[in-house]
Amino acid sequence: MKKISHLRQIFLSAGGALALVALGNIALADGPAAKPAPYPLQTCVVSGEKLGEMGAPHTFTHQGREIKLCCKGCLKDFHKDPAKYLKKLEEAEKAGKSGNTAWSP
């Protein structure tokens, strides 16, 4: 009987330790997320429309970047070829840093 009681205590201790480790990992995963890179344009990267002309922009995060579209309708086009639009954003950022702000979709 002593042996069973001792084994029960070992299993309960091990289970408690595993629970604490799991909770620690969850706490780390839920820690503060990195803030996405801000959207560099005043226009929709898909349509070229000025943001805000069709109501509040549709804002979301994609691969650590903030993306703003003029409407939810552009979301489908964005998801068809996100690399194309991310490249446009990178080009716009480079142009903005060099002082050249001309950009077209």
Protein model, in words:
The radius of gyration is 25 Å and the shape is elongated. The chain is built from 3 helices and 2 strands. With 105 residues, the chain is mainly alpha-helical. Mean pLDDT is 79; it is low at 99-103. Strands 1-2 form a two-stranded antiparallel ribbon. It folds into 2 domains: 1-31; 35-105, no CATH class.
Spatial gap, N to C terminus:
78 Å
How many strands?
Answer: 2
User: Helix and strand string, N-terminal first?
Assistant: HEEHH
User: What's the story with the biggest beta sheet?
Assistant: 2 strands, antiparallel
Question: Which class best fits the helix and strand makeup?
Answer: mainly alpha
Radius of gyration: 25 Å
By DSSP (H or I, 4+ residues per run), the number of helices equals: 3
Strand content bin: 5-15%
Domain module count: 2
Fraction of residues in helices? 40-55%
Spans of at least 5 consecutive residues whose pLDDT stays below 50 are 99-103
Biggest β-sheet: strands ordered side by side in the sheet: 1-2
Overall geometric form: elongated
Average residue-wise pLDDT: 79
